[in-house]
From TrEMBL:
GO terms for cellular component: cytosol. It catalyses: dihydroxyacetone phosphate = methylglyoxal + phosphate. HAMAP family: Methylglyoxal_synth (MF_00549). It comes from Cohnella xylanilytica. Residues 1-140 form the MGS-like domain. This is Methylglyoxal synthase. Substrate binds at residues 9, 13, 35-38, 55-56, 88. NCBIfam families: MGSA, PRK05234.1. Catalyzes the formation of methylglyoxal from dihydroxyacetone phosphate.
Length: 140
């Protein structure tokens, strides 16, 4: 079971809901996380269970980033709105940087999200299970 975060800016929420509907069968066996409204909208429109964090501007991106920093997130789908300035842009950049540091696959548009989810469906994310298996414990 993979841990997957679903995040969408306001003008991309409908696109995220449609994506979740289309790939509900692929996402269902995994543990899903989302920022506030995005998670609510997904649960209202699918049978998916989503652990919701705060909304992005209120710290939700940072909460997901904390899981990334601990290498406890396997995939992030973050539908960003490139045409709208975001007041919490530094948080977004920090989250994307953490994904780069930890080697976490991240999609920022639906085309890349579709490729990653199809890859997940094929079993191409099995390498993440090894990451979890050999992750050092608190004892080091």
């Amino acid at each position: 079971m993979m841990q997957i975060a679903l995040i969408a800016h306001d003008r991309k929420k409908d696109e995220m809901v449609n994506f979740a509907i289309a790939y509900e069968h692929v996402l269902k066996p995994h543990k899903l996380y989302a920022t506030g409204t995005t998670g609510t909208r997904i649960m209202e429109n699918t049978s998916l269970q989503v652990h919701r964090f705060m909304s992005g501007p209120l710290g939700g991106d940072q909460q997901i980033g904390a899981l990334v920093a601990q290498n406890e997130m396997d995939l992030i789908i973050f539908l960003r709105d490139p045409l709208m300035a975001q007041p919490h842009e530094p948080d977004i950049i920090a989250l994307l940087r953490l994904c780069d540091v930890q080697g976490i696959p991240v999609a920022t548009n639906v085309a890349t999200a579709e490729l990653l989810v199809k890859s997940l469906q094929r079993g191409d994310f099995a390498w993440r299970e090894l990451v979890h298996k050999y992750k050092p414990g608190i004892d080091g």
